[in-house]
Fold this protein.
Amino acid sequence: MGITLEKISKSYDGRAVLKNLNLEINQGEFHVLLGPSGGGKTTTLSVMAGLTEQDSGSVSIGGQDVSNLSPDKRRIGFVFQDHALFPHLTVFDNVAYGLRVRRIKGHEMTRKVENYLSKVSIVKEKGKFPHQLSGGQKQRTALARALVIEPEILLMDEPMSSLDAMTKETVRDELKSIQQEIGVTTVYVTHDHNEAVLLGDRVSVLNNGRVEQIESPSELFHHPKTEFVARFIGIKNILKVSLIEINNHEATVRISSNGPDQSVTIRVKKYPIFGKGKEINLCIHPKKIMLKREDEAVDDNLNRIRGKIVKKTNNGNGFMAIVDIGGTTLYAAIPTNFDCKVYENVWVCFAPDAPHPLCGKKCRAAETKRRCLKE
Ligand SMILES: Nc1ncnc2c1ncn2[C@@H]1O[C@H](COP(=O)(O)OP(=O)(O)OP(=O)(O)O)[C@@H](O)[C@H]1O
Ligand SMILES: [Mg+2]
């Protein structure tokens, strides 16, 4: 079954944490709630589960309004960030807990517990207590405990945050395949955009109590809608521009994020999202920026902007230059054969089709041939 939140609001001490939040999650979907700390992710899950009561708005599961149902009547499994295992119960009894509460006993209970212990590969540990388990094993136990009651909806709150990188990868892959196998509708909270891409069928970006964008992971990366979403998923170069002139294939725009005395114009591909007088955000991938020396010739087809290198960083895959172009900074990947120094003056060059608008797919609206170029 799917789960729908309609106009959910929640305040603590007069401070709005969820603001008219709408979210529709489809049956069988692996949905990732992505957002910064304090954005309202845990509160959203907690309202879904009925552990926190919303001030207004409704929660429906499978089309039925469950707003007035207690947590145990909502058929929801919850995996908490800190696992929240019962310390005095063994792995087996932790997993069996929800079944006992539902008065499922004897052979049927054992069969179900063993089945889920085996799905999460923790059968050998079934006699151990939580303090005798590794982080990954605690995580698996918590997952089996949530799944054994065969919930309609599985909610997971940053379940991998305490695991090392290798265990995280293994548990994540297993989680994805178990979810696909049993088809349980899943809502998974994280602030890690890589995790969102690897796990999510769709991703909601939550900011300050509102959903800023809902999209499949690849569309989210290619068509972020707002500057917040773009920055949050790791897009570094964002230029605010306003339209000066448009012709058949190209538009001339002024970089408005530079001060008024720093009038820089560039030519960019013409996108349907452009409108006169409207300020829009363009992003450019650091690899699409070429740095050239001041005395080097630059192809007429390329944009070129005067810049000064203010910093060099190593991002693990190679060096990046941070270039000041007069009030705005851009990241540019430095090719291995380009030796440049901090405070050196350079030309920042890129093709007109390198910048891409932050459009939330609006750029595709008009005609298919006008689709945004993928990065
Ligand atoms: N029980 C509570 N009482 C008062 N304020 C609360 C309570 N629960 C949450 N808040 C506040 O609501 C806001 C959102 O909290 P929430 O836990 O939903 O954020 P989050 O997105 O899960 O953050 P994180 O990534 O740090 O877990 C925070 O400012 C938090 O301080
Ligand atoms: Mg949280």
